[in-house]
Amino acid sequence: MAGVNITIPFPVELAKGHMDCQESSLLHGLQLNCYLGNPLRSGNQKELTVHLDMSGVKVGTEYLTFNISAYTKSKDKNLHENFQQLHLNLTTDANISILGKSEEDVYSYFKANEMKFKQIYEVQKVGLSSVDVAEIDISIPVQWFEPNRKKINLLELYSPKAYLNGQPLSCSSSIRFHSEDDVQDEDILDDESKPDMQNQESQETRDLSKIQNEAKGYQPPANRTLFLNCSTPNVVCNTVKCTAGPFESTPQSSAVIAIMMTLKISDLGTLMGKKDIVHLTTSGSVTIKKPENLNFIAGNHSVTVSSIFIGNVQKEVVATWIIALAIIAGILLLMLLVIGLMKAGFFERRKKEELKALKAVDVGVVADVWHG
């Protein structure tokens, strides 16, 4: 009789049992005692397939070791060949990326004192391995500060609406979130949509990778634009931090963060001057916190999102000298036309009388021919 003992390391388990094997528990794993034949004749090869469940293996594990030993009740001449240690190398197949989009690329505020707007960030996990914890940081320009001058608050920030696979996420910031009672339900992810948040998530993202590229087409004129971002001198930024996880061990798992803000247009008067466009940019980044030894591979680990606000459309003013030149040119053309007509005798009375006489002669000739 011949058989084999297989030691399976923790936390690997059997996906399904084998009819020729008996399972027993060990301190640090499982042992399978599998029957191969009685007798196992010389020259015969016996294959044994064991299905394993690897879902309990932690992300970042580099390898697993399986001990395999064969036995027989017959006399064995080569006992040293009966044991083998199998090292199974593991690869972590996971990465994380962040995308972003302003709900509207361009807002028109005209004479409004403030303007509500929303920006949406999406964090995507790709690959089959799970990501336990990821941290999303979103930097937002909130204040304009100059020494010896009064601080100017650029915007108001409402509590972010963040979800991972339909479950709410926790977000925090050093700045105070304003009351959500001031925001209409249709402007943010409202409570009524929470039971069906998975569908809401899909609607919010709307394939951000596609529409993010579409938003890059419009660039406002620099001479009319006030740029507000974390690289602008005198702009103070604060960070909203959201913790997400675990991201499921599915080919794609994502979190959505919707941030509602109010731009304080009336407070920007001293900064705007003659400018009528505001170009406000936030920036987001994502970092994998757990597992700690998971290295980043290719992907978008940071992104910027811009919202553009346009006020009164400025009309181009025609210079006075251009108007004067056009009038003079018109008068000169009229004078040239009159001179030409005068030289042709258009205004002389004698020419008119000769023309009438010529017409009378023509009429008389026609009459004589008719009577003749």
Range of helix content:
10-25%
Strand percentage = 35-45%
- Overall number of domains: 3
The end-to-end span amounts to 148 Å
The largest sheet is: 8 strands, mixed
Sheet/helix structural class: alpha+beta
**CATH superfamily annotation of the largest domain:** ntegrin, alpha v. Chain A, domain 4
Rg over CA atoms, rounded to whole Å, is 41 Å
Specify the CATH architecture of the largest domain. Answer: Sandwich
Main location: membrane
Keywords: Glycoprotein, Integrin, Membrane, Transmembrane, Transmembrane helix
GO molecular function, one term: integrin binding
Membrane topology: Single-pass type I membrane protein
Structure description:
The chain is α+β, with helices and mostly antiparallel strands and 372 residues long. The chain has three domains: 88 residues, no CATH class; 216 residues, Immunoglobulin-like (Sandwich), CATH 2.60.40.1530; 52 residues, no CATH class. 18% of the residues lie in helices and 38% in strands. The chain is elongated and about 145 Å long. About 9% of the residues have low confidence.
